[in-house]
Amino acid sequence: MNSRSMKRVGVAVVTAALTAAALAGCSGSTDGNNTGGGGDVTLTWWHNATSGPIPAVWEDVAAEFEDAHPGVTVEQTGYQNEELQRTLIPNALAAGDPPDLFQVWPGGELRDQVDNGYLMPLDDSIGDTIASVGTTVTPWQVDGVTYGVPFTFGIEGFWYNTDQFAEAGVEIPQTFDDLIDAVDKLRDAGFTPIAVGAGDGWPAAHWWYQFALKSCSPETLAQAEKDFDFSDGCWVEAGERLQDFIGIEPFQEGFLGTPAQQGAGSSAGMVANGQASMELMGHWNAGTIGGLTADQKVPPFLGWFPVPGITGADGDPKAALGGGDGFGCSASAPPECAELLAYIMSEDVQKRFAASGSGIPTVSAAVSSLDDPNLTMVADGLAASSSVQLWFDTAFGTTVGNAMNEGIVNLFAGAGSPKDIVTKMQDAAETQ
Q1: Boundaries of domain holding 302
Q2: Model confidence over 158-177: pLDDT tens digits?
Q3: Residue 123 domain-assigned?
Q4: Is residue 270 domain-shared with residue 364, that is, in the same domain?
Q5: Signal peptide span per the entry (predicted)?
Q6: Alpha carbon distance 419, 408 (integer Å)
Q7: What are the residues facing 281 on neighbouring strands?
């Protein structure tokens, strides 16, 4: 949503020499000064890593930072993404008791937090770190000022079971019509074609996002994000196309109550254990799937392909939907918060993040450390995309995004119409 993270066996182990060198490099620049014994400091760090290899990486990072900064304690906690984004962080910010370092999503949500004075400007304290991720940081900036730094960025696509595709005689879909044909062939071969974690809401919403991306012209998308103008007929058409797709019954039984990423019975777990052939999900999903198999390994049958375009629609067939995960500091956080963020974004930590299979790093020097061929395919897909549209709930902000997602889930449940989604978005926009 925003996007969204993941036990892959073979997480890179850092030697003492590498750790010392990385931390020494951090403390030797404006991006990571040692505290110098100025008193005890406790940093609270909230993130969305609850499964797969990345929790262990963040635990190591916290311990390493503490070792290099005497007097500093880092209390890091992972929460389920939806709970963190929709409840915990907004409530903590509104109550004036936020964590120091926390997950910050770009787009409308970031703009709202900046308007309320919740976030620390970062350019003066960690300028070198910000420069290291290039233009990827742009969605985390407001009026040219940086309030968050993305540690991973990628696009959404289909994670699929190559063995089941081969058995059913399915080739990689090049259009949505091909995808419909694939659903039919997979079902005829005795497989559940697609798993969706509609019980968590946002995975269902992403299906409508993709239909909107492929139905609406780039100009219409840009205008909607700028002016909240949803008058173009393509927005309703997106819902109609999704409604027709749901009508061919591509999803598993009970999809409305299925979670996305928690446990073997989740949509990711169904793909991991061969119970479904596909899942539409973000770039982090290989790590999530690997953490839900019996041997805690990414299954050898896992593959990935980009979302195809819709023949005859106004949308750009090569446009992709995506986003990333970033961290920012609360406005009340101590200076050590920015130093910790700089260390998280160091080349060494970014390489470990990449090697863990948890996602695509944003520091370019770390991309070569990607070991998972699926993540490499996502990185190649990102490079081949004509443009990347931020997740719509991220781009439009919390008020419009929540209303939009509610309307989409209602459509999945048969309790709403394609027009209802757009009406909810328009009504929510008028309250801002």
Answers
A1: 157-321+387-430
A2: 999 999 999 999 999 999 99
A3: yes
A4: no
A5: 1-24
A6: 10
A7: 157
